[in-house]
Every structure is written in C-alpha cells, then in structure tokens.
Amino acid sequence: MKTILIPVDFSEGSLHSCRYALALAGSQNVTFHLFHIYNDQVMLPDAGMPESMESDGFFNADIIQALKEQAENQMKQLKQEVKKLIKDAGSPIKVTASLQGGDPRWEITEVCEEQKPDLVIMGTRGLGKKGFLEGSMAAKIMAKAPVPVLAVPENYADFQLGNIMYPTHFNKLDIHALQQLFTLLSHLSFQVHVCHFHLEKKDEEASVLMKELEKAFEKEKSEGKISFHLEEAPDKEEALKTFVESHHIDLVTFLPEKKHPFKYLFSSHHLRKKDFFKLELPLMAMNE
To answer: Which residues have a Cβ under 8 Å from the Cβ of 83 and sit 6 or more positions away?
Structure first.
C-alpha cells in the first residue's frame, strides 16, 4: 500500500479518518493525500441582463473566492494536525493535499485516476451530522470507485484490525475480493470471517457454495487467516449483532454491485444496509 486518498470536509470526522488511516498504514512508507472540493458553481449573468443581476453575479464570484481561501486555510491547518499525529506516532508517512472547485457530487473515479491511490478512507459523518453512507453520494462512490473505499464512523474509537467480517451471498467475484483484501492489508495480522446468513434451518445450496469458496483458500484457512460460517438468522438483526460480538469484528468488508451497491448484500430478503450501519463499525467496499 503506497497511497491513501482521504476526502475531507474539515469536520471532526476528517481528522478521525486520518487517525484510522494512520493505524491502518502502520509503519509502511505510505502517502496520505488529503482532498477537498469546494462548491464553485455560480450562474454568470448574461450581458443583456440588468445591472443589478450582474452585480449579484460578481458578488457570487467574490463569495466563491472567499470559500476557496477559507478552504485553503482549513486544509493548511488540517495538514499540520495530521503531520503532528504522524510525528507523535513515529511513522514515516508523508502528507500531501489538494483542493479544487467543482460540483460537490464529484466523481471519485477522476480523483482516483489522477492520484492512483490504493485505498480511499472517509468519515461517515459530516458537518451536518448526517450519515455519509446513507446518501446517494456514498453509494455512488462505493459503486464507481476503482479502488476499495473504507468509511469510518465518527464515534468509532477502536483503531485496531484483528477480525474482519465478509458477508457473502456467493457473488462470482468473492474470491477476487478476498484475495484483494489479503493483498491490500498484507502488512497486518488479522483473520477474515466469511459468513452467510440464511433464514431457513437448512440451506443445502448455501452449504455447497460455501464449500466451493472454502476450497479457494485452503492455505489461508490452515494458517488461521480465514474461517467460514453459515449462520441461521430467524432474527437477522440479532444474529448479526451476536456474530459481530462473538467474533470481535473490527471491520465489515463487502463487494458492492456497480448499479446498486447493496442490492444483494443488503436485500430485503437478507440483511439490509441499515442493519450494518447500526453496528457503528468501519465498512469497506471492495472494487471489482
């Protein structure tokens, strides 16, 4: 892992994301790239419009310039705070930063193509205290990003990664996602818990599919790096909570769908998106 892209909005969640990134990076020579986009959308007046409207246009341009300058000052301050965190941790991590104007619904793919990060880490709370991932922007980011996207709840304080949960409905790309996970976090020691929750007492098809998935990771299983679980879940929410607590899960990772990131993983017939948000754990969407 060489570069981590960290989108920031200068809320407490931004610094919190950096703390998590620091814990995740460990002693690696990683670069944190802090990125912010400010709204520069302004309707310039037509030359034939009244002078009053032209004045409004220039006034709006002044506001945008002020927003840019404010963002530059906030980025400078955040960058210094992050550098202090890194220095106190005795880490070799480097910090770069950039900001640009544009539509707040920025395309993460363009930023990733430019910076070529290995991972995107962001907070799940913003200045408005609204759940970041509950909006269409986060779903879009998770679905379109060419790299894994990890979202950290603002109130999550356990900066550790001992146990990772990978819920599956047996997507054909599960093997790819799990291999990618092991590669991305190869510098850390952890165990992956692959699990499938089903409503029926006996699900023969799920048993067969789980055994096939298990065969692909025989080596990792023998080394204690991965385990496989079929869980009966008449009460989905309670089963999920019990699994997380009993296996001391620190991170939930999954493979999103391109058009509907949570279509299969969080369907109405199985576990839903909100069931996972209630856990208040970091969530990481792997890319295809």
So the answer is: 95
Tens-digit pLDDT profile for residues 66-124? 888 898 999 999 999 999 999 999 999 999 999 887 765 566 777 888 889 999 998 87
pLDDT digits (tens, 9 = 90+) for 33-60: 999 887 776 555 555 555 554 545 444 7
* Amino acid identity, position 227: S
Give the position of tokens 């913003």.
Answer: 126
* Domain regions of the chain by residue span: 3-152, 163-282
In a 10 Å sphere around its CB, with 0-12 CB exposed, 13-18 middle and 19+ buried, how is residue 131 labelled?
middle
**Distance (Å, rounded) from C-alpha 58 to C-alpha 279?**
48
* Residue 121: strand, helix, or coil: strand
Query: Residue 191 pairs with which residues in a beta bridge?
Result: 163
* Same fold yes or no, 3-152 and 163-282: yes
